[in-house]
Amino acid sequence: MENLEIVTPPEIKPSGKHGGFWKQIGMLVLGTTVSLVLTFGTAQIIQKHQRAKDRRLTAMMVMSNIETFAQQLDSLWIMAAYADTATTWLLNIPKDSLDKMSQDELLPIISKAININYLNYDKSTENIFSNNIETWKNMGNFQFIDMVGKSFSLMRLCEEKWNNYQEDLSNTFNEIASHPDQYPGETKAAKIARDPGMRQKLLMIHSLRSWARFNVECLRYYNRKNMKAIDITEQELMEFMEKRKKEMTIDQAEPNYSDFNIPKINPESLTTY
Q: Mean pLDDT, the chain, as a whole number?
């Protein structure tokens, strides 16, 4: 039996032309994929970095707002020392002796006793923080949220209590000054200084000052906790506040109200009305 020779069919290879085409397609797909990954990855990194900067800026604004309010309240309780001193003097004078004092002698002391300035709380920063509260929640920084919430709540309370006292004091003074015949006393100033309601309100100024001073320290204590939660130093906060205080200069003078005060109409010019 003759040996049969097994012939292997020749291997069929793709031509160079078609192989190059598919190689180019593969490289194109790979390049596009890498480009998309890099583009989206870079965009996410930039976006994440920008969000972090925005959060830090908001945190700085919040903490500077708290410190600014604390400084304002600190100044008010110091300035109210004059009222506290005048009140102490008035309340230690017997009522009968107040009638023996002249109007010109007694009224300036009463004016000092009721000279309590208003406390102003700008809520714009609180609104900015509240509108972005979900961002802070997503970060999981609940300690910062809690401390800022306590600070804002205390600031609102301080403004309300301080200004209510000032308004009550002014209203009582104006009521007696407007209807002096309804109150006992030789002079209008004596009537104001002798009135039980006025004396009771004047007595409150000392405890109000102590309460305000306590809250100044509370706000600064909360703010130190805020700084620790966000990893911001007190020096950084003070530098940020200095930048905010710097006035921006432009090539224009600030509007002056007197420049827009239109003269009154001359009645003689209305003869043909």
A: 81
